[in-house]
Amino acid sequence: MPAARPTLRCLREDLHLPLPPARIRLETVKHPLLAKVGEQFADPDTPHERIRSIDDAVLFKAKVQRWRGAIWCDEPESEVPVWLVAAGIREDGSGDDFYTALHTRAQAARQRYNAEHDKPLTTDTHCADLLPNTDDADRYRIEAATRFALRLDATIRDLVHGSLHDGHEHAADLAGFRLGVIIRADDGHETYAAIRITGPVPQNLTSTILLLIPGCDPTAWFPEYALPERDLLPAEQIWSNLMDPKAAARLLDQEP
Fold it and tell me: Which end of the chain lies in a sparser environment, N or C, as judged by fewer CB atoms within 10 Å?
């Protein structure tokens, strides 16, 4: 099971941690409570202690050192099945004050909800504001997009570097498609670049790939109907351009 992920509210307000850059997954944030939750929920067969005072959602307890937490579990097949939704520090002389405060907070939230809605809640507590929301979903998608962009950039540079060295096509499988790169210098001292994309990709991703090819004018890509050795295959697109020879020389000198 993946590591526990804190909600944005919990990260900022309860753990008092800054929001890291999008390249860092919130599951990897260093904190003793998050580490404990990850261990506690690693085995799906391990029993967990429920917070009984919360009756509108199933929340579980997590304890490490003086830290206390409330855990909410989504469906096992969801992208993030385990969330840390609230956290606090046990004060000296009080064994369970965090959970008492959590119950008081949830009761107050229920009272506010009932005051603002015609149909009152029948539960004793209301924890909807603690659970993951659209901001949390957006952050998860931004992280995923950032990881893909970084991987795509690194993959393209590796493929370009490899093809510059031997003149052959170098290819890699990415999410749902295959990317191939051919870089060749001809007798006229021009450096030919061809990009092969096999599989369904949105137009904006094709544009992004072409923009990431180093040493090429991003406005000069031209669609082709064949590679030097063969014709276009089904579900395949090919784009060609000329690479700046000086840029090609610099790329050859770089480590792969």
Answer: C
